[in-house]
Design brief:
The complex is a heterodimer of chains A (about 180) and B (about 220). With about 180 residues, chain A is α+β, with helices and mostly antiparallel strands. In chain A, about 45% of the residues lie in helices and about 15% in strands. Chain A has five helices and four strands. The longest helix of chain A has 27 residues. In chain B, about 30% of the residues lie in helices and about 25% in strands. In chain B, helix 3 runs antiparallel to helix 4. In chain B, about 30% of the residues are buried. The two termini of chain B are about 15 Å apart. The chains are: A alpha+beta (about 180), B alpha+beta (about 220). Chain B: This is Trafficking protein particle complex subunit. Chain B: Belongs to the TRAPP small subunits family. TRAPPC4 subfamily. Chain B: Keywords: Cell membrane, Endoplasmic reticulum, ER-Golgi transport, Golgi apparatus, Membrane, Postsynaptic cell membrane, Synapse, Transport.
Chain lengths: ~180, ~220
Amino acid sequence: MSRQSNRTTDSKKMNSELFTLTYGALVTQLCKDYENDEEVNKQLDKMGYNIGVRLIEDFLARSSIGRCQDFRETADVIAKVAFKMYLGTTPSVTNWSPAGDEFSLILESNPLVDFVELPDNHNTLIYSNLLCGALRGSLEMVQMAVDVKFVQDTLRGDNVTEIRMKFIKRIEENLPAGDE
Amino acid sequence: MVIFSVYLVNKAGGLIYQYDNYVPRAEAEKTFSFPLDLVLKHHDEKVVVSFGQRDGIRVGHAVLSINGVDVIGKNTAEGKDILEYLKDASNYPVSIRFGRARLSSNEKLMLASMFHSLFAIGSQLSPDAGSSGIEMLETDVFKLHCFQTLTGIKFIVLADPRQSGIDALLRKIYEIYSDFALKNPFYSLEMPIRCELFDQNLKSALEIAEKAGNFGAGS
């Protein structure tokens, strides 16, 4: 009975340090296997994408949020609901472009990078690139093509961690019926 | 208060999961002696009653089993044509079970893709823009409820018309799908779902919904 009732607040808590360690082990193993930061970034993005396409259903099932009417609403939902639900942190949405199709997410805390320091020989490694892939994958499943990238990263010496999201287009193929 | 079946249809209209929760009530097994007083004929790869009605056997019922052994399409389990078998007096007395023919899995696949196309008609017929697709289809025997997620997957539940709480059940099935199908790394998206845990949890969700529906006005 406990499994079926209170799923919306995710009663199963896990040690976040185990999560950080797991992610760290993943990235270091990828570095050893590929030995090339660009390649590792690509792999992290791909893995994130595969997580994203599955995670979106979990998100929609638990949050019962309807379709967002515009990109601003999407940004709010991502920052206030999705990040809160999965990473326990609420980034702020800023730096809107004049056309309203680009915005930045500023993360104060990122559970993936607790206790992490990037060594000098991995200058171009985007450690949390999994997040970008996940955002891209999940939005693609709700018919939005976006471009997501890190523009600032505290691991590489910047002051804040900033993710820039740009709306490319609405995906018109395979649109679910009733969504015009 | 019964939930008859659950269908899951993917984005492209293909059936990825199907579960039947009902036991067909109208089945009759009788022993016959030569000559058979029912007229049988071939129909759609099955042998059905075309004339003659008695003791619970109705026109349209199919031959389900002969002498306790299930038939395979038009032939008996041994491969003999049923009509030929029943013309032979030496095979009598024979015990035949008649009942409403159950849908084969191919038929279910076809019906699911047809429903996928019809679903869109709901939004196209709408006088106003922004209508959803077909959400409910009602007949005098059952009510079909359909829920389409933002990602295009349809959850279809066939239930007793008086059964309540189906909306909550559809959301619950969505949660079960996102848990036991999607979080299983070996399940590929849009493919038929063959996950034990998904089956088990779906069955218990149906039981709970059926029990809750008995109390009348559910959610």
